[in-house]
Design brief:
This protein has an eight-stranded mixed sheet, sandwiched between helices. The N terminus is likely disordered. The chain is built from six helices and eight strands. Helices cover 28% and strands 25% of the residues. The chain has one domain. By secondary structure, it is α+β, with helices and mostly antiparallel strands. A hairpin with a 7-residue loop joins strand 7 and strand 8.
């Protein structure tokens, strides 16, 4: 993947992270395969203890495995045929992430989802932690190899949510970089620092 494509992909990911579209009539991989793929973004010692949400039937996200270490991983959505994407986040982010998924299921656009959630955080009706970590892995369609249990062409991102963080408070640029961290959505409840990872 070229540097420019990586940066564009990172910006897109930061704007739409974890908003799963409803799956259509797609082939659903076995639960164990989904679990293995979904936990790939995590450091290896954390993978076995993560909760995994995935698909037993197309179109319905549900718990495939209940974990013990406070991390939740989202399996690849079968309806998303243009790329491979999985992500894992700390359980403190669950209310914010679950609300995003619910709003998308209602047909809200990413911008509308953020508008609603930001308003709810401001009113105190939606809980947002003071910080929260997320790991993701994104690559070309079909990149995950179920035999080798790898996604060789996918790129990793580590995201640290820091609600309200600004350029001034972090000293970071808002321009995406492939060689260092940058800040997205500064000053909002969804402000987060992005780090490109190598697998």
């Amino acid at each position: 993947m070229s540097r420019s494509l990586l940066l564009r992909s990172s910006v897109t990911l930061g704007a739409t992270l974890l908003f799963a579209e409803p799956a259509t009539a797609q082939t659903v991989p076995p639960a164990e395969q989904q679990i293995t793929a979904a936990t790939l973004p995590l450091p290896e010692p954390m993978r076995a203890g993560a909760t995994v949400l995935g698909y037993r039937t197309a179109g319905r996200l549900e718990t495939l495995r209940r974990g013990t270490n406070g991390m939740t991983c989202l399996a690849h959505n079968p309806s998303e045929t243009n790329r491979f994407h999985v992500a894992c986040y700390h359980e403190s982010l669950e209310p914010f992430m679950a609300r995003g998924r619910a709003l998308r299921a209602e047909g809200k656009t990413p911008a509308q989802v953020d508008t609603v959630r930001f308003a709810e955080v401001a009113k105190g009706t939606l809980k947002m932690p003071t910080s929260g970590a997320l790991y993701s892995l994104t690559g070309p369609a079909g990149d995950y190899d179920p035999v080798k249990k790898t996604a060789p062409k996918s790129k990793g991102l580590f995201v640290m949510y820091m609600p309200g963080a600004t350029q001034e408070s972090t000293g970071l640029t808002t321009t995406p970089r492939a060689d260092g961290p940058w800040l997205m959505l500064p000053g909002t409840p969804k402000a987060h620092i992005m780090f490109t990872l190598t697998m």
